[in-house]
Amino acid sequence: MTQAQKTIIKLLVVLLLSGSMLFMPFEEWGLPINAIQTRVIALFVFAALMWILEVIPIWTTSVMVITLALLGTSNTSLNFLKVDKFDAKEVQAIVADAYGPSANADTVKATQEAVVASLKKAASINPTVVRNTIATEILKPVTTGKADADAKAALLAASGKLYDGEVSQRIAKMEMVNLTQQKSIFATFADPIIILFLGGFFLADAATKFRLDINLARVLLKPFGTNPKYVLLGLMSVTALFSMFMSNTATAAMMLALLTPVLALFKPEDRGRAAFALCIPIGANVGGIGTPIGTPPNAIALKFMQEMGLNITFGKWMMFGVPFVIIMLLVGWLVLIKMFPISQKSLDLAKEMKGKFLTTPKAIIVYITFIVTILLWVIPKEYHGLDANSVAIIPIAVFSVTGVITKKDLRAMSWDVLWLVAGGFALGVALSETNLAKDMINSIPFASWDSLMLLIGSSLICLFMATFMSHTATAALLMPIMASVAAGMMTGPNAPMDSAGAIGLLVTIAFASSLGMALPISTPPNAMAYATGHVEQKGMAISGTILCLLGLAITIGLMSLLGAIGFFN
C-alpha cells in the first residue's frame, strides 16, 4: 500500500468518525447538546484524530480547525449553517405577557422589536441576559423620566413578572444557543501566548547567532558530568527549577535555546536526540507544579481553597509539591532513557563547546537583553507589573531595532508552530464560548459519587481535557464545579468528605491540569519541542501518556497518604 493510499484511508476514517458525531442522539443520552455544540463535538473529534494520525502536517490541521470554527460554529458562519440563538416568538410572547392585555399595543410591539434586536447582538446569551434585556427595555420610560406615576407603577409591575412567577419560569426554560465569536477565533493568532512564543524564538535565534546558548549550556550543565544520561537529568532538573518560579512556556523557550548545541553533538541516527528534546517540556510542565505560582492551575486551586476556608500556605504547598516534582522528574528520566536509548557514549560539554563569550556591541546587547528578560520572568509580577507575555515583547523590540535579528532571521523562524498553537486555542474557544465544555461537565453527577470515585473520575476527566485544551482553561472550568461539589459533600451530619478530602480533590485537579502533555497541542512547551524536528508525534504521545497516567496515580496516592496522616489538618 502506497503512502498516498494510507493517507486517503486515514482521511476517510477521520471524516467518517467526526461526521458521525453530527448524527449522534446526545439528547437521548441525557446530554443537553444543541446544534452548534454538536458541530463543536464533531470539530473536536476531527481535530483530535487529525492531530493523532497526522493525516496532514499538524499545523495545517490547526488552520483547518480555525477555518471550520469560523465557517460552521461562529456568529459569522455561512448563511445556510446559521442557527437562531433563541426563540424570537417566545421572547415576544414573554414581553407581551409581562405587559399584560391592557398595555398599549404599539408600546408592546416597540419593546418586542427592541428586545429581539438587542438579543441578536449579544455575544453570549442565557436566561439572565434575556431577563435583564427585557427589563431594561420595559423600564426605559422610567429611567428616562418620561413615565408619569401611573405608567411608572404599571411598568415596574410588568418588569417584576420577569423575576417571579410563571413568566420567570418560562424565561428559565428557554433553549438558547451560544456561538463562537469571530473576534475570539481570530484573536488566537495574536494571543499573548503567541507573543511569548515569538519572544522565545527571538531569544533563541539571538543566543545562537552570538554563541550565548553554547556558553551558557557549558556552564549550567558542567556539574552533571559527561555521561549523557546524567546530562539529560541535568537539563530536566534545571528546566524544572526555573519553571517553579517563571512561566512554563518562557522556561521551555529559554532551555530549548540552550539545548541546540547539545543536539548538534548527536549523530543523526541516535534516538537520544528525541530524549533530549522531550526532557525540556517534561521538566517545564512538571516543574510548575512545585509552587503555587509555578502554573496558573495552582493559583486557581488556591483561590477556591481560600474561598472555602481551606488555607494552604506557599510553604505547605511546596512541602508536597516539590517532592512530587522530584519523583516525576526521576520517572520521566527513566521513561526517556528506556524509550529513547542514547547511543552517544560521552557528552563532554566543556570540551566540545569551545569558545568564549563574544564582546562585540551586538553580543553585549544580546547578553543584557537576555539577562533582563529572564530576570523579569523570574521576579514575581507584583514587583514590576509585567506578566510573562508582556516581558516577551522586550527582546522582540530590542533585537529588531538594533539589527540583532534581521529580516532573513525572521523569515526562518518556526511560524508553523504559532499556527499550530493558535489552532489549539481556537478549539478551546469553541468549547468554551458555545458552553459545550460547561454543559457536558455539568451533566456529570459528581455529587452522587463517593470521595475516592470523585477523585479518580474528576482527575481523569481533567487530564483528558487538559490534553486537548489549555491547562489554565481546563482548571478554570473544572475548579469551580469541583469546589462546589466538595463544599456540598462537606456539609451535613454524615458528610462524606472532610476538609482534607476537599483540599486533596482541588490539588489533584490542579496537578492533573498540568499533567496533560501527550500531544504537541497539549501545552506550549510540547509544541516548542516538536518544532525542533527531533521529536516524532508518536514518541511524544506514548511517553506523554505514560507520564500522564503515572503522574495521576502518584498524585492520587500522595493526596490519599497526606490526608490519612493528617497533613492538611
Low confidence ranges: none
Alpha-carbon distance between the termini?
63 Å
> How many strand segments?
0
Q: State the helicity in percent bands.
A: 55-70%
Order of helices and strands: HHHHHHHHHHHHHHHHHHHHHHHHHHHHHH
Percent of residues in beta strands: under 5%
Largest sheet properties: none
So how many helices?
30
Shape: globular
- The overall pLDDT average reads 84
Rounded to the nearest angstrom, the radius of gyration is 27 Å
Structural class: mainly alpha
**How many separate structural domains?**
3
Short description:
This protein is an all-alpha fold and 569 residues long. Helix content is 70%, strand content 0%. It has 3 domains: 88-172; 188-305 and 314-411, no CATH class; 415-564, no CATH class.
